Amino acid sequence: MFGLPASVGFASVAAAGRLAQRLAHLVYTEVVGGSNPSAPTTFPKTLVSTRFNRTMARMSKSALQLFLLLLMTFAAHGKPSLTHETGKAKKTADMPMDLDLTEGQPQPTNAAPQTPPKAAKNTPPRKVNAVAPTNSVPAPSAPAYMVPTENWVALDRWAKQNKLPGLENLSTPGAPLYELRAPIGSFQIRPGSNLAAWSGLELRLGFEPQLIADTPLLHRLDLEKNLVPLLVGGAPHVTAQRVIVLDPGHGGTDSGTRSAEGDLEKDHTLDWALRLASLLRTQGWTVALTRTNDTQMSLTDRVAFTDRHRADLFLSLHFNATTQPYHAGIETYCVTPMGMPSNVTRSYEDNTTLVFPNNLFDAQNLQLALNIHRAILKATGGRDRGVRRARFLSVLRAQNRPAVLIEGGYLSNPDEAKLIISEDYRQKLAQAVADALK
Fold this sequence. Notes:
The chain has two domains: 13-77, no CATH class; 91-438, 3-Layer(aba) Sandwich (Aminopeptidase). Helices cover 32% and strands 18% of the residues. The chain contains eleven helices and 18 strands.
C-alpha cells in the first residue's frame, strides 16, 4: 500500500517514535479494529477519525517513515511497540584486525562491549518464532522461543528455560568453546570471537560472545536474529506461483572482477544463472533473470524488475576477488538486522540504526542463506568462508522478499579460478542451488 524508502535514518527517534507509535495505535484501534476479529484487515478509502487526522498532520517525515515500517510489521507481531533496544558497535579504531573478514583490505572485527549491562527488571520476555513474508503462504506452526529484554543473555540458563539441552563445555586450555545441541542441529560459540558454527557451517555473529564467571553470554540480537531462526529451521515459504528472480552479477561495461588470465566475472555469473534457471524450471519454479545477455542494469532497476515479477525469492550470483591470492572459498550474504554490526563493511559506513525493507525477512534470509551455503559446500568441496551480514549490498536491502547474494569462489585465487572457468564447476554450482530450493 505504501512504499518505504530504501533506508530510514532515525535522527530523532524518540520524538518520531512517540508520534509514530501513537498514530499506529490509533490506526490499530480505530481503523484495523484492535482485537476485534470481525474488524476489517485493510484500510478504508476514507479515514474519518478526527484524532487520526490531527496526528497525521503533526507527523514529521522521520515519524511518517517509522510509522510506515510499524504498519508493515504489526500485523505479524501484534500491537506496535518501540521498546526494541539498539545494539552498539565499538569504533573501528579500537578493534583488532581480522584478515579473514574481507575480500580485499583487512577489516576490523565487530567487538562487543566487555561489561554486560544489567538485566531489565520486571519486563517479561517475549516469544519469537518464524514470520512468513507478506507475499507468501502462511508458515506452519513453529516452536516459540523466549527472547529476554536484557542485552546479554546467559545461554545455559536460556536453553533450560526453553526446554533445550544444557550448554556443553568443549573448551581446551586457552580456547573456550561451548555447544548448544538442539533436535535439528548444534550451535557452537567461542567467547571473544564472532565466529560461530551451526551444524558445522561457519556463521558470523554480530557481537562477540562474552564469558563472565565461567558463564557464556550471547547478545540478545544474536539470540533473536541468529540462534532462534536456526532453531526454528526450515526454508522461506513461497506462494503457489513459486516465482524466483536470478540476478547474474554485473554485465555490459560493468565486467565485475577478472582472473589473472583475463576471465570476466560477468560472463561466468550469466552462465551460472542460465544453467540454474533451466534446473529450477524443471522443479516447477517460474524463473525470471535480470539479464539474459551481456547488458548492464543498475542495482535499482534490478530491484524494480524483481518487484514487477512479484518474486518470492531473489538470488544474486557473483564470484569474488581480492588482492591477496591465497583467499579462496564460498561466501553467502544477507542484509544485517537493525541494531547489529555488519560482518563486512568494505569501508562503507555501517549505521546500525538504519532499517531496510528487506529487514522484514531477517529470519528467512538467514535460513535461505544457510540452506544454499550448505548445498554449495557439499557439491563443490569448497572452503567454508561463512554466512555473513552486510548493509552495503543495495541489491539486497531494498528487496521485499527473502534475498541472498552468493559468492561462488575467488577468481583471484589461481586454483579456484581454474575451477570457475570450467563448465563442470558452474554446473555443480547450479545443481547445488537448485537442490537447496527443492
